[in-house]
Amino acid sequence: MTTRPAGPLVAVLGASGFIGSAVLRELARGPWRIRAVSRRPAAVPAGARAAVEVRTADLTAPGATAEAVRDADVVIHAVAHIAGDTTWRIGEDDTAAERVNVGLVRDLVDALAARPRREPAAVLFAGAVSQAGPPDQDVLDGTETDRPAGAYDIQKLRAERLLLAADADGVLRGASLRLPTVFGHDPGSTARDKGVVSLMARRALAGEPITMWHDGTVRRDLLHVTDAARAFAAAARHTGALSGRHWLLGTGRGEPLGAVFRQVAALAAEHTGRPPVPVVSVEPPAHAEPGDFRGVTVDASAFRAATGWRPRVPLAEGLRGAVAHCAAVCEGSPP
């Protein structure tokens, strides 16, 4: 660890994951002290201005979370249980997922409650727009009544409520940043995107059809991972204005998935030299959820007003970078 001027200590939990590693890269540009905590060692960003301490830990082990956040001024909780290689879907009886998605927040609250009396730490939780459940309207702005349907969203909402209850009790200053579909790659990326954009890019590069469970008109608000990381960095600078509630992140544009996938197919064809693979509709599987067939567009104006953040990466640029990265390194891509 390189010695640099002291600043606020930010503990990034899940610092080697897709979201956490992007947050680490963004924070490393600023005057912070960072404790990057994850099961496998996080990569220290090249040219980091911040002082970065890398710590490996299984946060589900007794006392591990308390040690990870010891003396932290800000905690960014970017840990989530991902079932399998490409999906966040989990079963209702998945106790391992519950231990990570809910139990770690409970451990975090207990750890901060046990600290000696001092200024409460700020905690930023990586939530999900889908916690609201299948939307009744075209645009979500954070005022919706939460009615999650899937086990993952139910667990994320339980964790968020634990955090906000602790905020109300004065244990900490907590806020949840609910993320839409996050995708992408930047030159400093160290973690693989396991989301739908990357999955479809790998299929197209391998010459396989891109499949949809609908007619392609279902919309998704697609946020580049770099913009998601910038949002957390902005939140870390404005914790006082954000604490006590959840905030929605998004671009304000709902992109028809059929058009997005056709663009992915065209970009993949530039790498393979073959015609674009077809984009086809297929019967949905048994595990499909109501939200899979509802469009999502996010109005993030409240968060933008509170922090000054705005998304900067255009969709076309983000898709091109994601496909190029998959062509270079993703498993299953042709040489």
Automatic annotation (TrEMBL):
Identify the InterPro entries for this entry.
Answer: Epimerase_deHydtase (IPR001509), Lipid_A_modif_metabolic_enz (IPR050177), NAD(P)-bd_dom_sf (IPR036291)
Q: Which domain of life is it from?
A: Bacteria
The NAD-dependent epimerase/dehydratase domain is annotated at 10-250
Which residues, by range, are in coiled-coil regions?
Answer: none
Q: Which Pfam families match?
A: Epimerase (PF01370)
Which range is the signal sequence, renumbered to this chain?
A: none
* PANTHER family (UniProt xref): BIFUNCTIONAL POLYMYXIN RESISTANCE PROTEIN ARNA, UDP-D-APIOSE_UDP-D-XYLOSE SYNTHASE 2
**What name has this protein been given in UniProt?**
Oxidoreductase
